[in-house]
Amino acid sequence: MARRLSRLAELDVGELKGVGSKRAAMSKVGIDTVLDLITHYPRRYIDRSRQVEIASLAPADEALVVAKVRSSSLRRARTGKMLVEVVVGDDSGRMKVTFFNQAWRAKQLREGTEAAFFGKVELFRGSRQMTNPVVDLVGNRTGRIIPLYPQSEKEGLTTWDKAGWVEEALERAGVLLDPLPDEWRERLELIGRDKAFHDIHTPATMEDTRPAHRRLAFDELFRLQMTLVLRKRALERESKGIRHVVEGDLVPRFHAALPFQLTGDQRKAIDEIAADLAGPHPMHRLLQGEVGSGKTVVAATALLVGVQGGHQGALMAPTEVLAEQHYLGLRELFRDLSVPDPTTLMGDRPLVVELLTNRTGAADRARLHAGLVDGKVDLLIGTHALLTEGVEFASLGVIVIDEQHRFGVEQRAALRGKGDDPDVLVMTATPIPRTAAMTVYGDLDVTVIREMPPGRRPPKTVWLPGPLEEETAWKKVRDEVATGSQAYVVCPLVEESEKIQARSAEEEFIRLKSDVFPGLRLDLLHGRMPAKDKEKVMAAFRAGQLDVLVATTVIEVGVDVPDASVMVIESADRFGIAQLHQLRGRVGRKGQASWCYLLSEETEGEASERLDALVKNSDGFELAEIDLELRGEGTILGVRQKGRTDLKLASLRRDRDLVARAREVAFAIVDSDPLLAGHPDLAEEIRSLVEPDEAEFLFKS
Ligand code: ADP
Ligand code: MG
Known about the structure:
Layout: H1 5-8, H2 23-28, H3 34-38, E1 44-47, E2 62-76, E3 82-89, E4 94-100, H4 105-108, E5 114-120, E6 122-124, E7 127-131, E8 134-137, E9 145-148, H5 159-173, H6 182-187, H7 193-201, H8 209-238, H9 250-257, H10 264-278, E10 284-289, H11 295-308, E11 312-316, H12 320-333, E12 338-340, E13 348-350, E14 353-356, H13 362-373, E15 379-382, E16 396-401, H14 409-416, E17 423-428, H15 434-440, E18 445-449, E19 460-464, H16 470-482, E20 486-490, H17 498-516, E21 522-525, H18 531-542, E22 548-551, E23 564-569, H19 577-584, E24 595-599, H20 605-616, H21 620-631, H22 634-637, H23 656-672, H24 680-689, H25 692-698
Parallel strand pairs: 4-7, 10-17, 10-18, 11-15, 11-16, 14-15, 16-17, 19-24, 20-22, 20-23, 21-22, 23-24
Antiparallel strand pairs: 1-9, 2-3, 2-5, 3-4, 5-8, 6-7, 12-13
Helix pairs in contact: 7-8, 8-23, 9-11, 10-11, 20-21
Bound molecules: adenosine-5'-diphosphate and magnesium ion.
Magnesium ion (MG) binds next to helix 11.
């Protein structure tokens, strides 16, 4: 009988021959079960049939050479660095390999040791050499293709230890069961699971590794999508939902009164949301769109649809500043709207929008609570204060959550709990790549607004690489202020603590005030200031009583001051791409010409690629793709996916097509067989991945 993977998860690796004393070391690198071991994949292979001889290496090639150590020496270079010089040779010739600051290599690479060296070939005084190559000890492995596993030098685990155990594990496991229905396997042109495991660990030829990689990467993505899709469908089954009235007259009146035409993307987003609202299941939709892309009108429309059918709406934002801005904005947008009210003479009354934050006084709060319960308040805007106990609604129909990543799952659930399966729209201004969205937010539907309202010009972004060039930025600030505009200076990010961050911001503020901008009106904003003081500074800046706001990244979230036209970001290399892009979105909000200066002397390495990307691109979604390229998926997945659903092999960059396919197959299977009654092997595999509670929820009819 074929073996299920979950069975291998129950077998301890200590059962394998030869693991014995190395069992503890295995645990340290995260390998406890036989399943852990066989999903510990080679990071590279040596193809003995295609091995390059030293004599035929061309300079500047990236090459893999298998050779024997002839001699090695350790000494201190003039610069003080420890230097290990090794001469290696094969049948064709010799080559020098140099390591800086890796003194332990002298012990690892003793005379007679055979190893694979992977690196760039250089020519130095007529001889070939490599500097700091990747080294894998080959040992006495035979066979044409040799898998190289991640080495765990510190734990004393070699690649041939691992290879030997994997081979034994695969042999003793017998044939591995394939839970993917044949029909899908054929359609996707995937090889079987058993063959895939053998071909990734013990391939006969290099060509065999590719389909094996594809199949196993697919499995990782598919398991993840299955849990996400099952969760989505289970939630829908569980809930009753409200069928909202999308045909009323409130929304058309609102749209007709707007001083602009909706963009195509805004229309599309509104249509998708309206379809969700009209449907029987509660909406769980993510609305992605950059700062300034016009998400507010879309969110406002969703809220109005709820009100139109006699329900209430709530909008929750992560900070007081943001909540207040939304409140003022929505009140203005809804100024002339009225809702039916049979108790009045005219049969209607103005639409009521209220604000609730921690600063709302006791009397106002009591009035608000009463208004919410008897339905006199149509829309409530606010911060976490919305979650407090006294807040109860007559009928909460639609929820909008802004900057959703700032709220936890429980907080979102708490707000949902204030209604009877209300529809939920979450918004984010941080674009994430499509494949990542499918993976991280796979239990949500996703709508993207890419098109900016006409007339928005992205800030001209300039990278100033030295202290001399900085003056260009300061001059632009003075020039813009002279014409009545305002400017931001963003202080360097200090990771250590908020306290140190605050102190360094204070110092920078004093320097700018006395040395750089004497005569201008400056003030400071940082996270350690009391909320009251923060608000005072923001209000002064908004009212045009300040020329320059010196701030830490507290301004990142949603601060909207239309007259700001210049931003200077100090030590820009310390910030991530998304953060820098968010920050610069704060200037030029009226559509005026605007500038963003990135100060950084880092002209090499990954930081410089980030800055360069910002100078060249103004589209947040393109930047998000570049960010994924540069940083890998870890940072994106980190927050939501942990444990067994980790992607070991699959890459959201390289395997883009597989992400989409995996999602498609998951939907097809779940929608034809919601509880996987006809797919027992697949059901068992998914169950074994998730917590028992979750499994119960997922498979409950
Ligand atoms: P976001 O919330 O996505 O950051 P906003 O909804 O605050 O963006 O919109 C930014 C600005 O663009 C606002 O001043 C808004 O009135 C304006 N705006 C929104 N949609 C349009 C449109 N279709 N045409 C012109 N201006 C628009
Ligand atoms: Mg907004």
